[in-house]
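INFO  loader      accepted 1 record
INFO  loader      residues=300
INFO  predictor   begin
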Amino acid sequence: MAAAANYSATCSSTPLASTQRPRLNGHTSSSDAVSRTKILLLGLRRAGKTSIQQVLFNNLPPKQTFYLETTMRILKHQIDTVIPLEIWDCPANVTVESLGVPLSQFSTIIFVIDIRDLCNQPISKLVEWIVASYQENPDIMLEVFVHKAEKLQEDDKIENFRQIHERVSDRLLDISPEYEQMQLNFHLTSVYDHSLHEAFSRVLHKLIESLPFLEELLNVFCANSQSPKAFLFDTRSRLYIATDASPVDSATHNLCCDYLLMLNSFGPLYTCVLSSFSSPNLPSLSQPIPSTFNLRAMCS
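INFO  predictor   done
INFO  writer      dumping tokens
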């Protein structure tokens, strides 16, 4: 069994209602009283940055990402999930100087590279951002999404991923040996399978201060229910917030994501059938059944 918890994730490109929350690893936006953890999304043109954001948080079907327009200016997306996020979707020509804010304001930088692009330009751009961010904030988390993995066969996919990883590492070592100790994480991703959700979940885990407590709760749940595996999911984005101590099996994770996809597709069809005139406190026929946190069991 795997358990999924239902958080309500919302996405907005405009300021949300000013609701005071405790500071969680983030910085308060000038246009929003909520303390949001900032993530910088970078990459060259057509690398797939906007597709990643739209598929994860706006439920855009992967086949429709082909029609997305090229990002021409910095777009700030406010995401309400287990922690408030602010994702900066940047155009290809953005620089540290044109960003407008210091890199120290960001908790994580995600750089997206097309897996087919083995040219010098994306790797040089990535190394520039790594050096700049490390000099300003050595504790910043650096993540590389080697994206559009569905475009290649399995052997070519693994080989290109290895080459990109090696070239970036070699470039950094040529600049300074101190970069050898830097934590740089590479993820193989695609919008056409659940690898993107798994990779972004791992990024999110590093930003959740309460993660050890959530993991311990799931360990207790597995021990008391004799479940072999448990996940705590944000059902809207299908990102898993936490899991128990046992290793994550991709097949089980994919099964849970498929279940949540079905749940999101059919959930809005079910509304409360209670008569609105039977009690003034009961929801009307047009209102969905209120639910802020639901545990659901899924067979694995």
